[in-house]
Design goal:
It is a single chain. The chain contains four helices and four strands, in the order H-H-H-E-E-H-E-E. It has two domains: 14-74; 98-180, General secretion pathway protein M, EpsM (Gyrase A, domain 2). By secondary structure, the protein is of the alpha+beta class. It is 53% helix and 20% strand. It has helices spanning 14-73, 76-96, 100-110, 140-153, and strands at 116-125, 128-137, 156-166, 172-180.
């Protein structure tokens, strides 16, 4: 049996080739449409962002103008006065912050064993706290030792005995005066100071 194609014109499968070409054309059209939609989308987004940027720049310029006008209306002298008042108020608040614990810690480190404190009255002054201290001792030397210890601690200045007298029991009652500066002086509660006090 002869299996050879003896026709004068060879046989081509034209339909399959046309189908493949049609599919390729559809793919190209689809990609073209997709790219065109993306270009349109990004173009619209770019236009919107450019408009928003222009709006933001205009608003920033308006705000800069408003800030410039506000700075022009600020009275620097009034601002300086307000700052000075604020500093003075803070200073008064700091000076009114009085710690009894801190004061008695100072006394504990400077008080000789033979001297006893009977009363303490603080009064706020410009340079610090003015203290009036009533003490009881056996002799003037003990009072002087206490005053020296207060001065050497660094937290007290202008210490002196304003009044001294002996009571019926033979004890010396003295009224001492001193300026107390809480923020200066040696830390309390460690060791001893000269004159019998503990430091």
């Amino acid at each position: 049996m002869i299996r050879t194609n003896l026709s004068t014109r060879p046989f081509y499968n034209e339909r399959s080739v046309q189908t493949i070409l049609l599919l390729l054309a559809l793919v190209v059209v689809a990609f073209t449409a997709f790219n065109a939609s993306r270009v349109l989308r990004y173009s619209r987004s770019d236009t919107r962002l450019a408009t928003q940027a222009s709006s933001d720049e205009a608003r920033a310029a308006t705000l800069r103008d408003q800030a410039r006008k506000l700075r022009g209306t600020v009275d620097t002298r009034q601002l300086d006065f307000a700052s000075a008042d604020a500093r003075e108020a803070n200073d008064l608040i700091d000076r009114r912050t009085f710690s009894w614990t801190g004061l008695f810690n100072r006394f504990e480190t400077t008080l000789p064993d033979e001297v006893r404190i009977a009363a303490v009255r603080p009064k706020i002054e410009k340079e610090g706290f003015e203290l009036t201290i009533n003490v009881v001792a056996r002799s003037t030397d003990e009072i002087n030792s206490f005053l020296e210890n207060l001065e050497s601690s660094g937290a007290f200045k202008n210490t002196y005995s304003a009044e001294e007298h002996f009571d019926d029991q033979g004890q010396l009652n003295a009224t001492l005066a001193a300026i107390y500066l809480p923020e200066v002086g040696h830390a309390a509660g460690t060791g001893r100071v000269p004159g019998g006090g503990r430091r």
